[in-house]
From TrEMBL:
<dbReference type="InterPro" id="IPR019831">
    <property type="entry name" value="Mn/Fe_SOD_N"/>
</dbReference>
<keyword id="KW-0150">Chloroplast</keyword>
<feature type="domain" description="Manganese/iron superoxide dismutase C-terminal">
    <location>
        <begin position="200"/>
        <end position="298"/>
    </location>
</feature>
<feature type="domain" description="Manganese/iron superoxide dismutase N-terminal">
    <location>
        <begin position="105"/>
        <end position="189"/>
    </location>
</feature>
<dbReference type="GO" id="GO:0004784">
    <property type="term" value="F:superoxide dismutase activity"/>
</dbReference>
<keyword id="KW-0812">Transmembrane</keyword>
<dbReference type="Pfam" id="PF02777">
    <property type="entry name" value="Sod_Fe_C"/>
</dbReference>
<keyword id="KW-1133">Transmembrane helix</keyword>
<dbReference type="InterPro" id="IPR019832">
    <property type="entry name" value="Mn/Fe_SOD_C"/>
</dbReference>
<dbReference type="InterPro" id="IPR036314">
    <property type="entry name" value="SOD_C_sf"/>
</dbReference>
<feature type="transmembrane region" description="Helical">
    <location>
        <begin position="219"/>
        <end position="236"/>
    </location>
</feature>
<protein>
    <recommendedName>
        <fullName>superoxide dismutase</fullName>
        <ecNumber>1.15.1.1</ecNumber>
    </recommendedName>
</protein>
<dbReference type="InterPro" id="IPR019833">
    <property type="entry name" value="Mn/Fe_SOD_BS"/>
</dbReference>
<dbReference type="GO" id="GO:0042644">
    <property type="term" value="C:chloroplast nucleoid"/>
</dbReference>
<dbReference type="GO" id="GO:0046872">
    <property type="term" value="F:metal ion binding"/>
</dbReference>
<keyword id="KW-0479">Metal-binding</keyword>
<dbReference type="Pfam" id="PF00081">
    <property type="entry name" value="Sod_Fe_N"/>
</dbReference>
Length: 318
């Protein structure tokens, strides 16, 4: 494409005029992209002189960082330098406007249809539990982090551990941990779940609890004796190299103690009130008989064995 120097100049000034007139990041982005097409080296420096950092913001609009991307830093004392993202929001009148993206963390969906656990956990319960409570936790977290928070961009694991702050939790901890706990909880169940684990997981449970029935009794007992709201967990203890049952109050998640969770059960009343009223015992029994996913638990244990050697070391002899 041949463009004369004169027409280049006129295009440059036209674009700058449009930008100056509209003053929107969106138009800046168009000019930015247009400048590459026409190879106009002077245009960016002109825009930069006039609008400064807005040019960078416009660039982000057209080259957005994927929402699933996380900025990971081992040193949380260093503030993350993350550009402001800009997106267009549909307005009722069909036009668009630019606004800052604040919802960095997304709501994960359960790995099954919302009615797939019927009749043991109703769609009505999951609609409310996942669609309202879980969503509120993630929206609350995003709101807490929206102002260039030092924690903005951590993985959820990092966020939970960092905000726990060795037992003196930051304000973000409850929302972060409840997001983590619920993501884990939905995946701890499956349609046609319950019954007994198999193979390696069953053997490990029998080794650490004597028998599956002993384990079951202890898990149910922990769930029923938890005071107030919280969670019961089957975890792999790194130091003890064994499975154990732990109870946590409110939002606390055992990864803050470096445990490796295998299964969790939500014991907040919102998890079972619609289906079982205040009959926690019935809810726990149904979870063990029909909902818990031993398939997922077996995968998690196998993953955990990458960090914890549960048997005698098998070191190849040269
Ligand atoms: Fe819950």
């Amino acid at each position: 494409m041949v463009v004369s120097r004169c027409s280049v100049r006129s295009i440059e000034f036209s674009c700058v005029y449009v930008v100056a007139l509209c003053g929107k990041g969106m138009y800046l982005g168009l000019v930015w992209r247009f400048s590459f097409v026409l190879k106009l080296p002077g245009l960016l420096s002109i825009l930069h002189c006039i609008f400064g950092n807005k040019v960078a913001m416009a660039s982000c609009y057209f080259n957005p960082i994927p929402s699933s991307s996380h900025f990971i830093s081992a040193d949380l004392t260093q503030k993350f330098k993350i550009p402001k993202l800009v997106h267009r929001k549909k307005r009722f009148d069909g036009s668009t406007r630019s606004s800052k993206i604040t919802a960095f963390y997304g709501l994960k969906t359960p790995p099954y249809e919302l009615d797939a656990l019927e009749p043991y956990m109703s769609k009505r319960t999951i609609d409310m539990h996942w669609g309202e409570y879980h969503r509120n936790f993630i929206e609350g977290l995003n709101k807490q982090l929206e102002k260039d928070d030092i924690l903005y961009g951590c993985t959820m694991d990092e966020l939970v551990k960092a905000t726990y702050n060795n037992g003196n939790p930051f304000p973000e901890f409850n929302n972060a941990a409840e997001v983590w706990n619920h993501d884990f909880f939905w995946e701890s169940m499956q349609p046609g779940g319950g019954d007994m684990p198999k193979l390696g997981l069953l053997q490990q449970i029998e080794k650490d609890f004597g028998s599956f029935m002993n384990f079951r009794e202890k898990f149910v007992g922990a769930a029923l004796s938890l005071f107030g709201s919280g969670w019961v967990w089957l975890v792999l203890k790194r130091e003890d190299k064994r499975l154990e049952i732990v109870k946590t109050s409110n939002a606390i998640c055992p990864i803050v103690w470096d445990d490796i969770p295998i299964i969790n059960l939500d014991l907040w009343e919102h998890a079972y009130y619609l289906d079982y009223r205040n009959d926690r015992a019935k809810y726990v029994d149904v979870f063990m008989n029909h909902l818990v996913s031993w398939d997922v638990a077996a995968v998690r244990l196998t993953r955990g064995e990458a960090f914890v050697n549960l048997g005698e070391p098998k070191i190849p002899v040269a």
